[in-house]
Amino acid sequence: MEMLDTGVLVLNRVYQPIHITSVRRAFSLLYQGAARAIDEQFQLFDFQSWSELWVAVHHDAIGTVGRRIRVPRVIVLMMYERMPKTRVRFSRFNIYARDDNTCQYCGGRMPRADLNLDHVVPRSRGGATSWENVVCSCVPCNLRKGGRTPEEAGMRLLRAPTRPRWTPMFRSATRRALYREWRPFLSLADAAYWNAELLT
Ligand SMILES: [Zn+2]
Predict the structure, then answer these.
(1) Would you give per-residue pLDDT tens digits along the chain (200 residues)?
(2) What is the pTM of this model?
């Protein structure tokens, strides 16, 4: 993946993680003054001071020969309102991510190739193609259910499908803590701790 497309954790003004954005967008927010970058010592930097930071060998960086700028992995928004509301794209990829590649009928977790999408209330019965009516299903469960509702087929959903609160990318990324720098902010207890440190 190109460095500009890798992830940056976005914190709101009270250091709660709210979103993951791209390095490209993070730099744009920094440059506009809408966000500050935060380093390993939890110091805040505006674009100018950040771009003057020493770039060590182990740091991700962008730029050309003679002008390398460290890639921030965590940024803090100065004004929450500036953050565009992100809509979770209703896509196959995101449904699989929401359901964690798990058949919502038998609970089997499997490769994406072995899963397909199931309309809980079949389309033939007027079931919508929506977050609330489409789930991941393995092929055997899908065949067993056929054109019936779960009740008719005697099958139960693991949980009622809903629109994700966060983007699934955020969910899976936070679970894996892609970057070491994200860890202190990914639990609310830690975020509160770092928040207190920074604001006193
Ligand atoms: Zn199944």
Answers:
(1) 688 888 898 888 877 777 788 899 999 999 999 999 998 888 899 999 999 998 888 889 998 767 889 999 999 998 765 445 556 677 787 788 889 889 999 999 998 889 999 999 999 999 998 899 999 999 999 999 999 999 999 999 999 999 876 655 555 555 555 787 887 777 654 444 444 333 32
(2) 0.52
The C-alpha atoms of residue 31 and residue 60 are separated, in whole angstroms, by: 18
177 within 8 A of 139, measured Cβ to Cβ: no
User: How far does residue 139's CA lie from ligand 1's centre (Å)?
Assistant: 7
Of 17, 14, 4, the closest CA to residue 183 belongs to: 17
State the distance from the centre of ligand 1 to the C-alpha of 7, rounded, in angstroms. Answer: 32
